[in-house]
Specification:
Largest sheet: 8 strands, antiparallel
Helix content: 25-40%
Strand content: 25-35%
CATH class of the largest domain: Alpha Beta
Number of helices: 18
Strand order of the largest sheet: 14-13-10-11-12-15-22-20
Low-confidence stretches: 588-595, 671-675
Radius of gyration: 28 Å
CATH topology of the largest domain: D-amino Acid Aminotransferase, Chain A, domain 1
Bound molecules: adenosine-5'-diphosphate
Shape: globular
Length: 675
């Protein structure tokens, strides 16, 4: 086994790899950029080497610097994690040239999977099922169209050099074909400098099911079951689970064996993932092979009881695989939810800022948290804004899903917008519970996941009001207890009077709608209850609170909710999703602190895709201004208020550093503000 390894990565994956290395007695070396000088991965490592400025192309992506760091510290091997240099054949070669072991597959395997059509050719020869289609060298439009006509529409055109969902286009009929092909070629040429296309049958309701494989250099190969990663937003995975629901033992074995055939066809070694599309009739088709450890590997670890990073180190050190196929046992069910700093309601725009509060669920045999940040850390513009991976395990899917939703309600994060509400709504939605899932899940269930205001008035609004009243009361009681005369009525600081009916008016906002709520406290014998009036409708309510659980009885219906409250923002976690309210305080209007002038900055490193406004243009609040692309996704930057675009600093096609000012914008002052 190695004595010392360098981890050419950052964040949660660097920390994850170090945990295993430490347990195995292997020393670790971290590398870091300016933005990461105090990062968790740097503190966890035995040694750390500075490799350059914050943008990854000036630090983490520079293979030479990483190799120099390994030589300097005497690291015998480099673990690339995922992303960055993990699938870079040149880096892999450079490691070999410097006598450093690359903890990953051979160069040839990385290269073989680099082109979609070359990969399909290899898999076809190895008898791995492919989506019906054409991936030949003859690129004449007549040949490609004939292939499409023969298999029938819809079809999917894909750039062979493509990745990240780019250069892909669905064609629904023969009439649309020519135009679709021309558009896909244009996009492929501008994105990859290569417009070679392949055409496939477009499956309308597939699932994304991938198989974890492992091979050593003693001719052993196993599969560690499958993961279902169908829940995606624009081809980015959101929640993953293992095993895939509804899999028969027979199908699992067929897919597993196909995955092993795929790996063996390219002389694979180490950890790899073979991605398949699984159709509703049980047919499955090879999509691609990822020649590295995947973000979602923990779900496989929890159902197999194996440590995949340990396996990687052992295989790279020349050992045999720790288990045979027969010794591997699938146990229970696991989910992983990716907790991101992002605004799900604004096209998943990445968010940045300081994590002023980061309180996590407690880790146990059921709950695992892989993270690279601590409270007080900054989610910067430079890297993937993932805060953590929350992974849960239990005996069955149903039980594991309950663990997931409960753990999501236990997160408390301040300082940055997160996707926790979105994940909670998704995980509690009926189709997700009922396994009605394919790759179009989020689009199909948009209304359920981003639920609207319909039910709020009758169900959650009285709970929010009751919560405010009860917590005010509790505060007042605590204040009274701390005073010299705990029974003094003057210490009743919440404006409720003893033994007397009294009405209190609250204003609560939900999705920008303000509701005036009148709460009247009543007593009946020794019982306290509240009459809550919203828009003339009356609710007879009682409630008790223990920690963050509120038990309510509203018009004779008893139920409970988990509540998290952050300053004036209240989140109510219910069986059917999370509901957010703001308590609007009478003398605490939303004052703008700046003078209305300023810029709009890039949320992260990326490329400007298009500029939708021109200099001097008057724009209204939420009007799209520019589109940026980062992390494989397009992000629309919208006007924060009505105003004027004074200057535009980037043009379409230009690279933009995270934090760079995109436009100069002045807010339009309304009459009240101006006076
Ligand atoms: P990329 O390399 O650009 O990510 P992939 O070939 O891996 O492209 O496909 C990405 C996603 O596109 C898949 O997870 C699946 O959701 C969808 N997809 C790919 N091929 C097909 C197909 N033939 N039919 C339907 N959906 C497909």
């Amino acid at each position: 086994m190695f004595n010392k390894i360098l981890i050419a990565n950052r964040g949660e994956i660097a920390c994850r790899i170090m945990k295993t290395a430490k347990r195995m007695g292997v020393l670790t070396v971290a590398v870091y950029s300016d933005a990461d000088k105090d990062a968790l991965h740097v503190h966890m490592a035995d040694e750390a080497i500075y490799i350059g400025p914050s943008p990854s192309r000036e630090s983490y992506l520079l293979g030479d610097k990483v190799i120099a760091a390994a030589i300097k510290t005497g690291a015998q091997a480099i673990h690339p994690g995922y992303g960055f240099l993990s699938e870079n054949a040149d880096f892999c070669r450079a490691c070999a040239a410097n006598n450093i072991t690359f903890i990953g597959p051979p160069v040839a395997a990385i290269e073989a999977m680099g082109s979609k059509s070359a990969a399909k050719n290899i898999m076809e020869k190895a008898n791995v099922p492919l989506v019906p289609g054409y991936h030949g060298d003859d690129q004449s439009s007549t040949i490609i169209k004939k292939a499409a006509d023969d298999m029938g529409y819809p079809v999917l055109l894909k750039a062979t050099a493509g990745g990240g969902g780019k250069g892909m286009r669905q064609v629904w009929s023969e009439q649309e074909f020519e135009e679709g092909l021309a558009a896909a070629k244009r996009e492929a040429m501008s994105s990859f400098g290569d417009d070679t296309m392949l055409v496939e049958k477009y499956l309308t309701q597939p699932r994304h099911v991938e198989i974890q494989v492992f091979c050593d250099n003693h001719d052993n190969a196993v599969y560690l079951f499958e993961r279902d990663c169908s829940v995606q937003r624009r081809h980015q995975k959101v929640i993953e689970e293992a095993p895939a629901f509804g899999m028969s033992e027979e199908l699992r074995a067929q897919m597993g064996e196909s995955a092993i055939k795929s790996a063996q066809a390219i002389g694979y070694q180490g950890a790899g993932t073979v991605e398949f599309l699984l159709d509703f009739d049980g047919s499955f088709y090879f999509m691609e092979m990822n020649t590295r450890l995947q973000v979602e590997h923990p779900v496989t670890e929890l159902i197999s009881g194996q440590d995949l990073v340990e396996w990687q180190l052992r295989v790279a050190a020349g050992e045999k695989l720790p288990k045979t196929q027969q010794q591997l046992v699938l146990n229970g069910h696991a989910f992983e939810a990716r907790i991101y700093a992002e605004d799900a309601n604004n096209d998943f725009l990445p968010a940045t800022g300081k994590l002023t509060l980061l309180q996590t669920p407690i880790e146990s045999e059921h709950v695992r948290i892989d993270t690279g940040v601590r409270q007080g850390d900054e989610v910067s513009v430079y890297y993937d804004p993932m805060i953590a991976k929350l992974i849960v395990w239990d005996e069955s899917r149903e039980k594991a899903l309950k663990r997931l939703t409960k753990a999501l309600t236990e997160y408390r994060i301040n300082g940055v917008t997160t996707n926790i509400d979105f994940l909670y709504n998704l995980a509690t939605s009926k189709p997700f519970i009922e396994e009605d899932i394919d790759t179009g899940f989020i689009e199909k269930n948009h209304e359920v996941i981003f639920h609207d205001t319909q039910q709020v008035l009758k169900n959650e609004l009285p709970i929010a009001a009751l919560f405010l009243v009860l917590s005010n009361k509790k505060k007042a009681q605590q204040n009274a207890l701390q005073s010299t005369d705990p029974y003094s009525p003057w210490h009743n600081a919440d404006a409720w009077r003893l033994n007397e009916a009294h009405t209190h008016t609250l204003v609560l906002a939900h999705n920008e709608t303000h509701y005036t709520v009148e709460v009247e406290q009543k007593r009946h014998a020794s019982d306290t209850y509240y009459l809550i009036n919203i828009n003339g409708e009356q609710f007879d309510c009682q409630g008790t609170m223990t920690n963050d659980i509120i038990v309510v009885n509203i018009n004779g219906h008893r139920s409970q909710a988990t509540i998290s409250c952050n300053e004036n923002h209240i989140s109510i976690y219910r069986e059917n999703g999370v509901f957010n309210f703001s308590h609007i305080l009478p003398d605490c209007g939303q004052h703008e602190s700046d003078d209305g002038h300023g810029g709009l900055t890039a949320p992260m490193n990326g490329t400007m895709v298009s500029v939708l406004v021109s200099r001097g243009e008057n724009v209204s609040k939420d009007q799209p201004l520019v589109i940026m692309e980062a992390m494989k996704m397009e992000h629309t930057i919208k006007a924060p208020s009505d105003g004027i675009v004074n200057e535009i600093f980037f043009q379409a096609g230009e690279m933009v550093d995270g934090g760079a000012e995109l436009l100069a914008f002045s807010q339009q002052l309304n009459a009240d503000d101006a006076s």
